[in-house]
Amino acid sequence: xxxxxxxxxxxxxxxxxxxxxxxxxxxxxxxxxxxxxxxxxxxxxxxxxxxxxxxxxxxxxxxxxxxxxxxxxxxxxxxxxxxxxxxxxxxxxxxxxxxxxxxxxxxxxxxxxxxxxxxxxxxxxx
Length: 126
Prior knowledge:
This protein is 4% helix and 34% strand. By secondary structure, the protein is mostly beta strands. The chain has a domain at 49-125. The chain has a three-stranded antiparallel sheet. A two-stranded antiparallel ribbon has the order 1-2. Strands 3-5 form a two-stranded antiparallel sheet. Strand 1 (22-29) and strand 2 form a beta hairpin. The mean pLDDT is 80.
């Protein structure tokens, strides 16, 4: 409630066809006056990652190392390479990735250009 007026919020979860993109229209109707406002958004299609493969880091990786870049290749369902941070980060299965190494952490980092970098750091020093 703001200044005696009651407001409600709606939360929208993505549907099963979010990868297709499309148009979304949000309509708000004032309960007191019946006034209606609409906003329309174009939603661009989103890649759905089909495979994610690690490659060997350049150089030697040892216990105690921090922010070691782990090269990877992410491919969408059409076989196109995906490098966009937002696309990779929002994949439901991304948090299921594992790396067999000494205890440490994997971090998906967004670079200034919007691409993703995968970093490993030895947990003992973090």
